[in-house]
Write a structure and sequence with these properties.
524 residues; alpha+beta; Alpha-Beta Plaits; six-stranded antiparallel β-sheet; 49% helix
């Protein structure tokens, strides 16, 4: 028989390589699971935190704006009775300006948009016309988007209409919030400065920045983006998305109903990743000493396991030498496996071969039926090709087996295959080899057999299976093809011939045997 090349690897190398690979793979998997799990938790926490920040700030800004509108409403009611009294209007404008730090300037205009009173006087707004006429046209409380004021400042204008007791529209009273200067909204936003790499900013409905930790960004108009769009269209929420510079952000957002502005609290995803990397490095440094100790233990155990087996393997090559018994007896057997192998070697080559044969049988059996598998068949045919003059092959499969699976289920189909295997073993001689080569396909090899003998065996098997009442599925039939191999012929050609004869049996109506010779076909 042909022999395989001598392996270059020995047991010691394999054991150590397997142990080290397993340890490294386990450690790598642990790090990966830790990294991905912690990243997911940190991202989720960051999104929830940013959404909570944005919602809280939006609520605060809404309260400030509502308070400003309430004060303007009060002033509107108080001046409606004296709207033509210039000193009273001027006095009320100055009083409102001094009331708190909400407004940087206050003005009162008539219905045509002409400013008739204002504070502070240094701005000299009296007599000028309002820049924006939308508050005059809508005649309702309004909070504008940012725009350039008459004085050239970037402001937001909060206004309330003034009506007479008879309902006549007289004009409006309003206050401007200068974005570049300290104001109530900016003070509120400054209270929420983050120290975790996150920042908060405020935009109006036109995407103009009203507040930003970087004063240079105030007044800039942001490009269309998923975060800003969501803040202006939805009440609140969170998302992971790129900002205008393409940096991936973890953002929470909330809208301000009264002004249709949006508050955004966001944190760069890179901060999370940097934190994770730092944590991973710390964990790796902490595990390194224990990992090194573990590797040393693995190395020692590998030597402890492999050295006796290596010596036994070396002794097994010289079992016929006179000193082999003493050599094997001198090998230490500190664990059960080495002791058992040493005992097997001491009993002799025959017992060792018998044990190896049993192990090979397990490796070469079909797990469902217990018959020989394709590997065992190929090795047997390789041996027979060298030692036999002739053998017969009987190819067979179950007729309409798909119908069995479809009707009764694969569990019943598997039980049918096992019962088929038992009948094949009962019909086989001790030297015959029964194989399952796939699905419902089986092969029976008969060494030193003639074609007529093989055909008789095939017919007996067909008859027995036809007569058997199988559990669940009842009666089944098989079709068989019988071919003969002679020394010098191709084994693969013989197997193909028996397959062709099998398919010829199926073509002729199934439940029959077709052999290489023209034997009468029996049909049931």
């Amino acid at each position: 028989m042909p022999t395989r090349p001598r392996p270059r690897l020995n047991l010691r190398t394999l054991l150590l390589a397997f142990a080290l690979t397993s340890a490294i793979a386990t450690l790598a998997n642990t790090f990966w699971v830790m990294f991905t799990t912690q990243k997911a938790e940190l991202v989720e926490n960051a999104l929830q935190t940013n959404e909570a920040y944005a919602s809280r700030i939006a609520t605060g800004v809404e309260e400030v704006l509502r308070s400003d509108l309430d004060r303007l409403q009060f002033v509107s009611s108080s001046i409606s009775q004296a709207f033509t009294d210039q000193p009273t209007l001027q006095k009320e404008a100055h009083r409102l300006l001094r009331q708190d730090t909400s407004f940087n300037s206050v003005l009162i205009s008539n219905a045509e948009g002409k400013i008739i009173a204002s504070a502070p006087s240094s701005l000299q707004l009296d007599g000028q016309m309002l820049q924006r006429r939308s508050p005059l046209l809508r005649r309702e409380p309004m909070i504008s988007d940012a725009f350039q004021s008459l004085a050239g400042n970037l402001v937001v204008f909060v206004s309330h209409p003034v009506f007479s007791q008879s309902g006549e529209y007289l004009g409006l009273v309003g206050g401007s919030i200068r974005l570049e200067q300290k104001n109530t909204i900016q003070a509120l936003m400054d209270l929420n400065i983050r120290n975790d790499g996150a920042h908060v900013y405020l935009v109006d409905s036109q995407r103009r920045v009203l507040y930003h930790p970087d004063p240079k960004r105030i007044g800039t108009v942001l490009a269309t983006g998923p975060i800003v769009d969501a803040a202006l269209k939805q009440s609140h929420g969170s998302m992971q998305a790129p900002d205008g510079n393409g940096n991936e952000m973890l953002a929470g957002y909330a809208s301000i109903p009264s002004s249709h502005w949006g508050v955004i609290s966001q944190r760069p995803l890179s901060n999370i990743q940097a934190r994770l990397e730092a944590t991973t490095i710390k964990v790796a440094k902490g595990i390194a000493p224990l990992g090194l100790f573990g590797l040393l233990v693995i190395w020692w155990l590998g030597l402890k396991i492999s050295v006796p087996l290596s010596r036994l393997a070396e002794s097994a090559k010289r079992l016929d030498a006179p000193e082999s018994y003493d050599r094997i007896l001198a090998v230490p057997a500190d664990y059960f496996e080495s002791w058992q192998i040493r005992r097997a070697l001491l009993l002799g080559a025959n017992l060792l071969q018998e044990k190896i044969g049993r192990l090979n049988h397990q490796a070469q059996s079909d797990p469902l039926t217990g018959l020989a598998n394709r590997r065992a068949m190929e090795e047997t045919l390789e041996l027979w090709q060298e030692t036999l003059e002739t053998f017969a092959t009987i190819s067979m499969d179950i007729d309409h087996f798909k119908r069995v699976n479809d009707t009764y289920g694969h569990g019943a189909g598997d039980e049918t295959l096992r019962a088929m295997a038992r009948l094949m073993r009962q019909a086989s001689r001790p030297d015959d080899l029964a194989c399952r080569i796939g699905g419902e396909e089986f092969l029976l090899l008969l060494p030193n057999s003639s074609i007529s003998t093989a055909a008789e065996v095939a017919e007996r098997l067909r008859t027995r299976i036809e007569a058997t009442d199988f559990d669940t599925v009842g009666h089944i039939t098989i079709s068989l093809g019988v071919a003969l191999w002679r020394k010098g012929e191709s084994i693969s050609a013989t197997l193909e011939k028996s397959d062709r004869l099998l398919y010829q049996a199926k073509a002729q109506g199934r439940n029959r045997v077709v052999s290489e010779k023209e034997l009468p076909a029996t049909t049931r």
